[in-house]
Structure formats: C-alpha cells, structure tokens
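user: can you give me the structure for this one chain? tokens are fine.
assistant: on it. calling the predictor now.
[tool input]
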Amino acid sequence: MNTPADQGIPPVEIDLLIRPEWIIPIEPAGVTLSGHALAVRDGLILAVLPDDEARRRFVPRQVVDLPGQVLLPGLVNLHTHAAMSLLRGFADDLPLMRWLNERIWPAEARYAGPDFVRAGTLLACAEMLRGGITTFNDMYFFPEAAAEAAGRIGMRAVLGIIVIEFPTGYATDADDYLAKGLAVRDRLSDDPLLSFSLAPHAPYTVADRTFERVATLAAQLDLPIHLHLHETRHEIEESIQQYAVRPVERLRRLGLLGPGLIAVHAVHLDAGEIELLAHEGCHVAHCPTSNLKLASGIPPMSEIQARGLNFGLGTDGAASNNRLDLFHEMRHAALLAKGASENAEALDAHSILTAATLGGARALGLEGEIGSLLPGKAADLCAVRLDEWLMQPCYDPASHLVYAAGRE
C-alpha cells in the first residue's frame, strides 16, 4: 500500500498519538485491535490505524505509550444522582419506598441546596473519572450547581430538568421545576460539554397533566426524557389501582413513548412491554447494583437484548449503590443476565462493553459525538491497565474488562 510519504505527501501534524497494547473501538462490534494507534487533533479522533502507518502519516506533538493497557471509549453512566454521593451509606438495607420516604426525602428536605449539590457532584465527578466514566446522565435538583462542578473537573454531563409534583427546597410545583430547569438550559446552552434532558422523576410522583407537558416540551426542544419506570412491583400495583393500567401503558397513552425515552431500571417488564418499547425506539438504563441493593428485582436483560431494545448501564446514586463504578455494573449486568436466563451466552463481554459506551451514548442522542472510536468523534477516552500480576494471563482484553479488571 502506498503511504503519504511514498507519494511525496508530507506527514500531518497532530496533537496526540496514543499507542496502547490493545484498542477496543466498539465500532465495528466485537473487535479488539493490537499493534494499532489512535491519533487525536483538536480534541477529535482523527484515525485508528496500525502503528507503522501512524508513524509515517503523522507528526504528533505528544506521544503516549500505554504498554499492557487497553484503550476504549470513555464509559457513559446512563443514570445517576451525582450529588447524592454525600448520602453514601446514609440509608442502607431498606426497600425503595421506605428508603425514600423515611430517610432520603427527609434528608434532602433538610440539606439539599446549591452548595450540597455542587460539593456532592464534584465528589461524584472525581470518582467517576477515576473509574473511566467520561459522561454522566444526571437527575437531581439545582442543575446549575451540578453544571459548575462538572465544568470545574471537565466532564461531559447531561443534566436532567427534574420534575416532581411536591415542593422541595428547589421548587414549589411541577411548573416551577420546569421553569427553573429550562432557564438553566437557556443560560448554559453554549457549553459544548453540557446537554439537557427532561427528567420527570417517576410515574408515582408525576401527574398526567405534567407528563403531557413534558411530552410536548420534549418534541419542541428535541430533548430526551429520563425517568424511573417499572422499578418495583409496588409501583406497578399502585398504578393499576390509581389509573387501571400499568405505567408503560399509561405513558403510551400520554404520548411519552418514543426514541427519546430513557426508561431507568425497567425491572418488571413483560414480553409485550419489551416489544412495545423496542418498537417505539425507547432505551433502558440498566442499574443492576442498585436493583440488587434495594431488592427491586432482576430485569429480563437477555429478552431486552434479543428484542433489539437499546440499553446502557447506570450506577444510580451512591445512596443506593455506594459506588459510582461502571466496572461493577458491567460485571453484575453480565452475570445476572446469564443466571436469570440460564444462558451462558447472554450478554457477552463485547455486548456489555457496548452497553457501557455506545448504548448509553445512543440513549442520550450523543452517538454522533461519543461512545466509539470512530474518526470525527470526541476523544473521550479510557485506558485500563491489564499488565499487573493479578490480571495474568490475559487471553482476551474484552473479557478481562468485564470479568476480571476493576476501576482500581
């Protein structure tokens, strides 16, 4: 093959050339590259190519050699409440509704303000970056304070315009929540690392009228809708008593199902609901550790995957997980899917890595910018050491990332 140098074309100046042991680009799927390098210019991926070709084609200002390490896209935390890092371990070993009613909501009423959110989000961002997470999808009060923290540490964030019916220290009613959140979005719309979603908390805390307004705003502003859905059996039973239908059907009637909907948890879906969500192009934020810790249940992830329903992985908040660690979520997601389906081939390592990167990016409408190592995408990157003796031998880097390695 003729190279630019062979053809008399001068090498291209670039900012950075990274030379790891392996590259898992996510796209194309199921591929692990060795002997390759990744070129970066102006914050964007310019090329992924063999080492020898990279040396001929580029003149980098900086070269980073990563022997024994695997390079992949930065991980995407598809659901968290970042500021709740300040409540880590505060309300352990309780079921969801007692956890909320007896501990979390009273604590938030007393403490949650801009300073709480700023400090808690900064702590969460540091923890997430330490574990390879470069983008997080947040749902909490005072989003401007969360934006300040994310900006200070340099993370990419999707901030939820939270909506709930009851008053808090942040807002008085659903209209007030929306007005304040939309005003923050307008003020911060030029920040390249920030985007926004509409975040009605859950079917049991949001009225029909509010959901209808959320659906209208989502269509007008082209914003994703991020909400807890079918997290517990109690939620479904309560919906049937109050609305005579399960929550998914209620949302369908209200016009919320579509490519912008991110259904968080989605633990208790029947086959028809999985089919419906897949048909409508919805997404699932799978939070296996939080689901286990709150005893909410195990979602039918092998069926979700089989139906083509896109899903990403989320940590939930540190108050219901205790770690903002997508390596834990990857391992739990893979093992639970295999155990629940009694199928050892369910959610293989490459599928889980895709969920933790491109799946989350797709759900957020950011797949054109992040989630895989294609030229033109942002150089949001994660490198993991696999050369320590605890990781030996390494037959398959993808397998090691899901089953053996950790954020440490």
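assistant: here you go. The first helix runs from residue 51 to 57. Residues 283 and 363 are 6 Å apart (CA to CA).
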